[in-house]
Amino acid sequence: xxxxACLSRYLGETGTALVYRMTSGKHFYAGNCSNLGSWPLPHExxxxxxDDGRYLVGAAPGTANYPVSSSMIExxxxxxxxxxxxxxxxxxxxxxxxxxxxxxxEVLRETGQLTSAGATRAQA
Length: 124
Known about the structure:
The protein has helices at 2-23, 93-110; strands at residues 31-39, 68-75, 78-85. By secondary structure, the chain is of the alpha+beta class.
């Protein structure tokens, strides 16, 4: 993808789209994970932490070539985790929801935010 992005300045939008179509069906990966770090970056001009429940989250695109996408970002001390599964993983949305719920519960259990009774102590 990096090579394609660098070549795009010479190929233009149409050429880049053509290269992507020609190569995207040949390379497959389990997925990707992005850690976007801690935000906002230290700076004196940062806005105050919004107290209206807004959070900054990241979401990788997720394609048939990268069917599992996960992201992590810290926003004013709160960590947001996202998991995105492309339909090529499983077309049964009930099973996908079950997998996502199990992933969320495991993350909460590992961080001590899920009690043994299954009640969360933090917003998930």
